[in-house]
Amino acid sequence: MLLHLGAVILLLAKPAIWLWIIGAVVANHLLLIALVFWPKGRLLGPNIRCLPTAAAGRNEVALTFDDGPWRLRLPY
C-alpha cells in the first residue's frame, strides 16, 4: 500500500519519470507473485505439498489456490 501511495505522490510531483514509477510498481508486484507462488515459499503461511496417503493411493490430484486452511463460517 505504501509503495502505491508513494508512486501516486511521486507521479504527481514528477510526472516526467512516470515510466520509472510504473516500472517500480510492476517490479514490486512481480517480486510478490514470485515469493507467493514459490513452491517452498512461506510468505503467506505453510504450503501443503503432498496428499494424504489414502488419496495418493487412489491417484487423486488436488490443486488449490486459497487463503489458508481456515473455514469460512457462513450464517446458513
What does it look like?
With 76 residues, this protein is an all-alpha fold. The protein has one domain (2-57). The protein is built from three helices and no strands. The mean pLDDT is 82.
Q: Can you give keywords for this protein?
A:
mainly alpha, 76 residues, 3 helices
Number of strands: 0
Largest sheet: none
- The proportion of residues forming helix, as a percent range, comes to 40-55%
Total number of distinct structural domains: 1
Could you say which structural class the secondary elements and strand pairing correspond to? mainly alpha
Number of helices: 3
Low-confidence stretches: none
Helix and strand run: HHH
- Report the end-to-end length measured between terminal Cα atoms: 34 Å
How much beta, percentage-wise? under 5%
Computed over alpha carbons, the radius of gyration is 20 Å
Mean pLDDT: 82
Shape: elongated
Q: How is this structure best summarized?
A:
The chain has 76 residues and is mostly helical. The protein has helices at 2-13, 18-37, 53-57.
Present the secondary structure layout:
Elements: H1 2-13, H2 18-37, H3 53-57
Helix pairs in contact: 1-2
